[in-house]
Amino acid sequence: MRTFDLAPLYRATVGYDRIADLMDRVLSADVTQPTYPPYNIEKTAENAYRISVAVAGFTADELSVEVKENTLVVTARKAGEEAEKTYLHRGIATRAFERRFALADHVRVTGAANADGMLHIDLVRETPEALKPRRIEIARASDIEAKAVEHTEA
Fold this sequence. Notes:
- The chain is an alpha+beta fold.
- The protein folds into two domains: about 1-35, no CATH class; about 35-130, Immunoglobulin-like (Sandwich), CATH 2.60.40.790.
- Helices cover about 20% and strands about 30% of the residues.
- The chain contains three helices and seven strands, in the order ααβββββββα.
């Protein structure tokens, strides 16, 4: 396995700590990432996304969706009633889980719905007005000279 030294990135940038930490986490992540429960991430519009998590066997009361410091945390805890049942074959896993998703800046969770064994979490990216591109008017040299003359006469 290759290792990358991100020290030059830390030395040459200011304010990119979160991106460097994310890269460091991804590059040093264990190969055996948890695969339960399966999920999809889809882009539903220009600035809208949906995370769909397969949660067969869980009710809405047994699921929890929280946002903590730009991390979306989905957890599920099954009630204790499963011990009473006797299974001949158990193919639907209803074990407890916690799944984390790193959210980019300005991504907000707008809602969650549990339907047909799928938990759908809708997200939207809202770019603040200050970060949106804006057009800067370019002044002509004659306009600058006229303003300079006005200021000197006043």
